[in-house]
Write a structure and sequence with these properties.
CATH topology of the largest domain: Preprotein translocase SecY subunit
CATH superfamily of the largest domain: SecY subunit domain
CATH class of the largest domain: Mainly Alpha
Shape: globular
Number of helices: 18
Helix content: 55-70%
Number of domains: 2
Largest sheet: 3 strands, antiparallel
Strand order of the largest sheet: 2-1-3
CATH architecture of the largest domain: Orthogonal Bundle
Order of helices and strands: HHHHHHHHHHHHEEHHHHEHH
Number of strands: 3
Structural class: mainly alpha
Length: 445
């Protein structure tokens, strides 16, 4: 009777019940949930001297600078909208991580540390944390300067006279907020379920969904709103398909074993999963950094007199999310950076050498250099699909806005959707692995 009742439940519900019955899994899930709740409390602690209500009006005003900060607000999970001490999010840490990944194959010392296993990776992680601090301080100061020139959210920013101490307190508070979020993320990774930093970004984006739906109810164009929802669902399904899409390369193992004076040839097969979107969201983050940088730098030099704008004002307007130039450049930049990042990751994996060392080979391909060339060509062909997919998803807010006529407040957070889908699937895989270790049926089939 119990078995029949268990089999009648949906697989996902039954898997959640099985996971919660396990003491260690239940503890990990509760720790993860508790840390995410703490993260949302931190999201409502304001930066000293900042006006949160003015920031919300500024982001909803539709100005070019407001659009610039709207993208940062999306990536921080709505923290900037509240002008929280964690308004920078974990973006400086991610930037430092990307920089360290690119420096590992270039700097011999870092390359040696990467080969030392967990010990070397721990040292690289320490260097990444140290790099995060100056990056957070620089980004925090840049945002304060741009906010002062574009709105009334903050005032009197500078390092001279009576402005020095308030400015330093704001920068220190924002930097401390970022490092605190990074620490919370590492606690989740060590004691909870899933990748902590990714889950913090995931939680922030999900918490902004009710606000996004609230904006939708204010729209008068019912047909446009319905079309917007349909297109959003289509893009969501497409993201899931491309996130899971992979090309399986068959691999054969052949070894000779000596038993009882006889030679046995043992053979077996497996496969190498090569994903279409192997770069994930990293190329988009790279591209967003490049697209935001000109506007942030130009923000230091914009003219406060809008009647007499200078060249810096033109740069800020050009690199806003209002014109065709911005989105066309964004698309090609995402495509180019997808190829760049995938090539870097492929070279670091060194699959051909690993296969040869393990006595494995791809049927019909000679081991060594020929295998490397074969996998490299195949990776480039797959990357074309992933790069164009990421580029189209990135510019989907602009396309949907033109098709449906929905205002900028309802622009589809495409980057957020990629993050949400990727983090959700990764967390489910980790829970599934934990369940399968305990001989339970997992989430996915």
């Amino acid at each position: 009777m119990t078995q029949e009742r268990k089999s009648s439940r949906p697989q996902l519900l039954q898997s959640m019940i099985d996971a919660f019955r396990q003491t260690d899994l239940r503890r990990k899930m509760l720790i993860t949930l508790g840390i995410l709740v703490l993260f949302r409390f931190i999201a409502h602690v304001p930066v000293p001297g900042a006006d949160a209500s003015a920031m919300q009006d500024f982001l909803g005003g539709g100005s070019s600078a407001g659009s610039l900060f709207g993208m940062l607000d999306l990536f921080s999970g709505g923290l900037m909208r509240n002008m929280s001490i964690a308004s920078l999010g974990v973006y400086p840490y991610i930037t430092a991580t990307i920089i360290m990944q690119l420096m590992v194959p270039v700097i011999p010392r870092l390359r040696e540390l990467a080969r030392e296993g967990d010990t070397g990776r721990a040292k690289i992680n320490i260097y990444t944390h140290w790099m995060t601090v100056p990056l957070a301080m620089l980004q925090g100061y840049s945002q304060l300067i741009l906010l002062q020139r574009s709105s009334s959210v903050v005032t009197n920013i500078g390092f001279s006279g009576e402005n020095a101490l308030p400015t330093i307190s704001m920068i220190v508070a924002m930097t401390a907020g970022t490092m605190f979020l990074v620490w919370l993320g590492e606690l989740i990774t060590e004691y909870g379920i899933g990748n902590g930093v990714s889950l913090i970004i995931f939680a922030g984006i999900v918490c902004t969904l009710p606000q996004l739906i609230g904006y939708g109810t204010l729209e008068n164009d019912v047909f446009g709103l319905i079309l917007f929802v349909v297109l959003s669902l289509v893009i969501l399904v497409t993201i899931i398909i491309f996130t899971e899409a992979q090309r399986r390369i068959p691999v054969q193992y052949a070894r000779s074993l000596y038993r009882g004076g006889r030679v046995y040839r043992q053979s077996g097969g497996t496969h190498i999963p090569m994903r279409v979107n192997s770069g994930g969201m990293i190329p988009i983050i790279f591209a967003m950094s490049f697209m935001l940088m000109p506007g942030i730098i130009a923000g230091f030099f914009v003219s406060p007199d809008l009647a007499n704008p200078n060249f810096a004002n033109s740069v800020v307007n050009l690199f806003s999310s209002e014109g065709y130039f911005y989105w066309i450049l964004y698309f090609f930049l995402v495509v180019a950076l997808t190829f760049f990042y995938t090539t870097v990751i492929f070279q670091q994996q060194n699959l051909a050498e690993t296969l040869q060392r393990q006595g494995a080979f791809i049927p019909g391909i000679r081991p060594g250099k020929a295998t490397h060339q074969y996998l490299s060509k195949l990776s480039n062909r797959l990357t074309w699909g992933g790069a164009i997919f990421l580029g189209l998803v990135t510019i989907s807010p602009f396309i949907i806005q033109k098709i449906t006529g929905i205002s900028g407040n309802l622009q589809l957070p495409a980057i957020g959707m990629i993050i949400v889908v990727g983090v959700a699937l990764d967390t489910m895989r980790q829970l599934e692995a934990q369940l399968l270790m305990r001989k339970y049926e997992g989430f996915l089939k």
